[in-house]
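To whoever is on call:

I kicked off a structure prediction for a single chain this morning and the downstream step that reads the tokens threw a length-mismatch warning. I double-checked the sequence; it's 164 residues and nothing unusual in it as far as I can see. Pasting both halves so you can look.
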Amino acid sequence: MNKLKYFSVAITIVLAACKPEIKGELGEPFSKTEGLSGNWQLVSFSQRDENNPIKEVRNLSDFYVIPGEESTKISFNSSDFSYSVIPGSGRNFFGTEGTWKFDNNDAPSFLYLQNITDTLELKLGSMPRSFDQQLDVELPRYCVDNAGVATPTVTYIFTIQRIN
């Protein structure tokens, strides 16, 4: 038994010594605010039924992305953290203009769109870098009962593509 124990330790040491040496550096992390900055256009819209046990997702893009009509466009400015919206087909969830921010600028999970009357909390499905072309966000909706308990009912899923 002791020989097996010593043999295992020896093999572990040999394998650990065989690791290649790390060369180079990762470089500076990408700016998340610069990654969002620019002009975007809605290319896909779906909704997920949160009350359905299988969390069914329905693609409703035909109501928001109609051939021959402009879909919703959003511009994000990273210098003053403002945003503006040009509504397109379907319902406009984002308002017309306001300010935006992340929950954490280094590792964001949520994007907040604030305007005069409302603040939207959008869950980031992907965080674009300045050269990425797609942004995925989710907008959960809740039903609040008389006791103030919020129950998720539906989540809207937006796929937005960079345009320039």
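Update from on-call: the warning came from a stale cache, not from the record. Cleared it. Sanity check on the structure: Residues 45 and 61 are 5 Å apart (CA to CA).
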